[in-house]
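Last lecture ended with a question: if I hand you only a sequence, what can you say about the shape of the protein? Today we answer it with a concrete record. The protein is Secretory carrier-associated membrane protein. Below, first the input exactly as provided, then the predicted structure, then a couple of comments.
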Amino acid sequence: MSDFDSNPFADPRVNSPFSDPSVQQAAGGGHRQAALDDFNPFADGNQTRPANQGAGVPPPRSAQTQPAIMTPSDDPPPYSQSGAQKVDTSELQKRQELESLVAGSPGVHEDIGEELERKAAELQRKEQELKNANFSGKRENNWPPLPKFFPVGPCFYQDFNVDIPLEFQRIVKFAYYLWGFHVIVLILNLFGSLAYLIADKDGAATFGLSILWLVLFTPCSFICWYRPLYKAFRSDSSFNFFVFFFIFFFQFCVYVVQCLGITDFTVGWINGLTIVTKDGKAAAGGFMLVIAFFFTVEAVASMFYLIKVHRIYRSTGASFQKAQAEFASGVMKNEAVRGAAADAAAGAARGAVSGYGSENRY
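The predicted structure:
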């Protein structure tokens, strides 16, 4: 009966379950998927767009939209080659020139090879000496460098590269050169005093003293002020620094007297000017003035050197109390002093015991 009651002209899809809008929207998803498949976001101008862009598909971002990653507003600085990127080829060119020179001159190659072998042998010898010294606790003396046949051997050990720290090697070597210059001037003073004696009979005393100064001051200056300075920089010894300051200041005063030529102590400015004014004695007087100039150079160099060493000494934090402590410890380490102190203590103990025994007898 219901079939006859229905309207034959009505839409047959009205009561159809597929007429539901949600079902139709789901059925139309295939067309939207096809439109999305045709969409190419990387095409120029993005001309291929979904057909139903207006039906629920969001529009593409415009050029004014802020991107997710911030881009720098300023352009990067222009490229410039830094100093670390520059390659220095001067050393390589020098090496290539040296190799070409050696290849073209066989004699040069042999000389370089001999020099390298000599330095390698010297380095090996120093290493062996250092090992022997560390093993035995003693070092073989090498100064003065006397020949093997000489009846007297070397008295001191001296090696700046082994004993002296690198930052103080130059100043200690300068002291050594200053001592050598002092010896040379004393020898010249001997000849100058001889010329003074020939020019004037009053130079006999000066000539005799010049022999004494050469024989006496040559070893004494080495032992009394150079060796203390060497040991001071070798072991950072305040006591040896004080010994150097005291004796070297006295040496500076002697240099001043020698350069002036006061009385008959040495030839100097006064004696030289006196002789040069005499007739026929200009050569002897000129030679004496040259020696006086050398004594003056020694005095000036000694003054500046003394100030330099004193500044270095003060920068190390040393003091007179430290020197006293080093002297006391050094005295107590001496075997002779310890033996004498032990004998004195033993004698005092025996005397006390004998005195105590004699009192008990009575």
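Comments.
1. Residues 51-56 have pLDDT under 50 and may be disordered.
2. The longest helix spans residues 282-315.
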